[in-house]
Amino acid sequence: MESFEWVSRGYGKNNVKLLHVRREGPVHSIKEYEVCTQLTLDTDKDYIHGDNSDIVATDSQKNTVYILAKKHGVTSPEAFALLLCSHFLNKYAHVNTVSVEVEEYPWRRLVVDGRAHNHAFILSPEYKHTCKVTQRRGEDLQLMTGLEGLRVLKTTQSAFVNFVNDEFRSLPDATDRIFSTIVSAAWQYNTVKNVDFGKIWITILKVINDKFAGPPDMGIFSPSVQNTVYLIQKTALEQIPELATMRVTMPNKHYFSVDFSKFKEVGSRENNEVFLPVDKPSGNIMAVLGRKTHSKL
Asked: Best exposed site among 84, 115, 198, 297 by fewest CB in 10 Å?
């Protein structure tokens, strides 16, 4: 190794599936997670010399997920990831860095005859809830929550006009268009002390809905996807002091008006009812907004 150095290394257990049932009399609640763990040791003798004496087996890491879920229960992906990270660092003095990723499966309570069922659920894959915790021994931990796959659409209150007009432009101004996108968002915390992760998740969803859709009767006008991205980020950072930064990505999912003018016998010059969905190619708008100063985790 005199001529080389590690850029990164680590090992762990991926895709550990877990269903936790909380039984409170006849009313049950469930959480289903998929967990990935990764450890980096403070020695590299396992790699260099094949000496396994310091390795916490990936099977042991898998078992740890189940044992801690049984012992402590699960409340949120973030809280469970923090619990696992703390356990590995405290249990094994030779573990230098821990990384834990958790994805929650979107179960919601089934409604039957207008009433929430006590113990029946339906998978509602409207979006993914993910998180990642990473901590190196002696350093501040990093916690990032992610929201992926939230596909939304509105049929009006969106425009895109007055952009660069040069020899490469073919797109006309659109004063009223369909706006559809798949929202991806991720936010980093500036603290993990006494944080209600569930409340923050609900707040983020409400902010996205409010700044994309607006009030149910009037909506909210979007002059560009860029502006909608910024409004979501700005509002989230204003309302949630525990956030340090927020990334939002919104790719365009285009719906183009079908041209009926070429059908002379049955066509029409105007069409605002029938559209052609076009997924590719698509524009992609992304921004990361953060506070100018924020406390560390």
From this structure: 115
